[in-house]
Amino acid sequence: MEELTLITPTFLFSAVSLILLAYTNRFLAYTSLVRNLKVKYMENKSSVTKAEIENLKKRLKLTRLMQLYGVASLLLCVATMFLIYIGLQTVSAVIFAVALLFLIISLALSVWEINISSKSIQIHLSDMEAK
Question: What is the pTM of this model?
Answer without folding.
Answer: 0.79
